[in-house]
Amino acid sequence: MTEDSLGLWSVPLAMVAGAIRVSTPFIFVSLGETLTERSGRINLGLEGTLVMGAMAGYAISYQTSVALGAPGGLAMAVSPWIGVIAAGLAGAVFGILHAWLCSKPRVNDVAVGIALMLFGAGLAFYLGKPYIKPTAPRLQAIPFGFWSDNTKVQNALEVNALFLVGCVLAPFILWGLRNTRYGMILRTVGESADAARAMGYSVNGVRMIATAAGGFLAGIGGSFLSLYYPGSWNEGLSSGQGLMAVALVIFARWNPMKCLYASLLFGAAGAIAPALQSVGVHSGRYLFTAAPYVFTLVIMIFTSSSSRTMAGIPAELTAAR
Questions:
Q1: One Pfam family this chain carries (predicted)?
Q2: Beta bridge partners of 143
Q3: Model pTM above 0.85
Q4: How far apart are CA 58 and CA 84, in angstroms?
Q5: Could you tell me which of 244, 320, 245, 299 has the C-alpha nearest to residue 35?
Q6: For residue 141, what are the β-bridge partners?
Q7: Are 264 and 30 in contact (CB under 8 A)?
Q8: Tell me: the pLDDT tens digits for 175-190?
Q9: Alpha-carbon gap, residue 248 to 48, rounded angstroms
Q10: Are 91 and 220 in contact (CB under 8 A)?
Q11: Pairing with 259, which of 4, 37, 138, 292 sits 20 to 30 Å away (CA)?
């Protein structure tokens, strides 16, 4: 098989590659938000958390490589993963801050989330300015396309380990929610805070842990953007993916496995424009580029109803705040 022999097969191949690469931040952010919302709290600040995670991951990866000295070898292998952990910790701090503020009387989740979204994005842009030009070590890909001589197939099947981690994490979280004591406590808090208190559980404590875990995963999703795809740090890196992930959680009905499937769908939708350009279709380029955003809007319209409750929604999310 030669590089030119793919023809129209380049389109589905590019969409598969897009589903693998573009979906990864969506997977982590949506799984994190699922945990948060299953506890009865919504975090709209994930866009800021995502951007902060991207900046923190890139900055720590760069600084670690400088501290280790010699380029390549150990620095290239270790620095990006230290950056991933740092991004997760930065996201967890934002999650804890969100949970702490929302635990106060008469504080609205949505208002706090919007404030933290703006704060996180602004802080990341301020702290990240020195790291726009330096090149940090990036996460390496696993070449699953080694069996093919076609460079397009090889490039499409380059998979980062974070994508595989996300694919494993989704069923693990689903299993944990359904079969473990901690999952039962989380679901109880999300369904009835009064019942959870009667059982002796700390509602604010459970929600803080869930929101911190959600922030940790969102931060890791941000590190994927800066350390792998597209693999750089700049102010326009996220393009609203944190907010889109919140819509994705609603679409997935707060089910981790459905979050994984929906993330792959979003990723494939985001790859439509470059896939069509690869076969010479340039008309309507900007329309196809907007496909994920149109998809998000359509989801919100079809899942919103003033006369019925959405299936799967934690009962505490429907309570007036």
A1: BPD_transp_2
A2: 158
A3: yes
A4: 8
A5: 245
A6: 160
A7: no
A8: 999 999 999 999 999 9
A9: 17
A10: yes
A11: 138
